[in-house]
Amino acid sequence: MESVAVKEFPKAAGDAGQVQEAGLFTSHCFHLDGGHVQFLGRVLKMQGSTLLIVNGREAETFDELAMAMPDRYDAKGKAISASIMGDRNQTDSSILAEKLSKRYQRQFYVSVNVQMDRLLLPLFEKALVTYMHDHLEHFV
Amino acid sequence: MTTSAEKPREIGFDKQFATDVNGVPTEIVFQRFGNKWFLLATQFGKMPGIYNVQFDVERQKRILPSLQNPYDNPEFHRSVPITMTVRLGLDTDEIRSAIQFLINKTELNECPTQIEMALGLKQIDGPNLRALAKVINEEIFLSTNKHK
Asked: Single Gene Ontology BP term (chain B) (predicted)?
């Protein structure tokens, strides 16, 4: 016999940014305003890992996915990464996943679906890190 | 560059909820992207294997619905023709059967593009898959269609 029951959890008072719908996962959507380029981020916090999907504001796609995790045998806490979707070489997704994984010592799945150049990428990373620092509970 | 938190939405995806599927806590996330759909259903509390599902006959090109759509009849069953590619995780007959079942039994087969499906079930069998298909249809597609 099949049985189904959806748990409904009320939204946390005063928190317009996130609803914890039952269970273990929480999700969050945020905007990074980069002047002429605006980013839309979606984050899913899971047990021990985080999924981060970044897109432009206009069209959302899901082309790349990379995963990185801390290397437990590396004394410096270096992260190792792998591409799951998209280009098999080093991509913005894998680079960002490695950085986040190393910084937070946590497994990160990252999907960056915006074409970025050498000027835009550091600005984006800085804005993202700032946002994550201010809203850490959504990410780790 | 400045950052701002604009968050009128309740959750970060089209759908994100937890449910019990035959008594097993299951986390489900669904998002429609422009070029594909993303469905995550896991009972392990973390990202399971990821599988890409491509439809052999695109929805817009299904000029013979009787041949290219699922036909749910015990005597004349017919599956939706799809091609699965493993992105991450184990490639087993069970998981492929589960994906094919969910495609046949849910409105996932209405996807106009392709699906990235992250599926992690502790036990793959008929009752569990039917329960999960029911959840997908009712909590994702039925509630989405209500708002259209």
From this structure: proteasome assembly
Beta bridge partners of A85: A65
CATH number at residue B126: 3.30.230.90
Q: Which residues 34-73 on chain B approach chain A with CB closer than 8 angstroms? A: 34-36, 38, 40, 45-47, 50, 52
| Tally of structural domains, chain B | 1
ipTM for the assembly? 0.83
The residues spanned by each domain of chain A are 26-138
Domain that holds residue B107: 18-60+71-146
* Residue A38 near residue A32 (C-beta atoms within 8 A): yes
pLDDT in tens, A69-81: 998 887 787 899 9
Q: Is B135 on the interface with A (CB under 8 A)?
A: yes
Do B18 and A24 make contact, defined as CB atoms within 8 angstroms?
yes
Which of A41-55, A74-88, A121-135, B3-17 bottoms out in mean pLDDT, i.e. has the lowest?
B3-17
DSSP β-bridge partners for residue A70: A79
Helices (H), B1-146: 65-68, 93-105, 126-135, 143-146
Q: How far apart are CA B74 and CA B116, in angstroms?
A: 28
- How many angstroms away from the CA of B70 is the closest CA of chain A? 22
- Return the C-alpha torsion angle B53, B59, B64, B67, nearest 10: 20
Q: Which of the four CATH numbers 3.30.230.100, 3.30.360.10, 2.130.10.10, 3.30.390.50 does domain A26-138 have?
A: 3.30.230.100
* Residue B6 within a domain: no
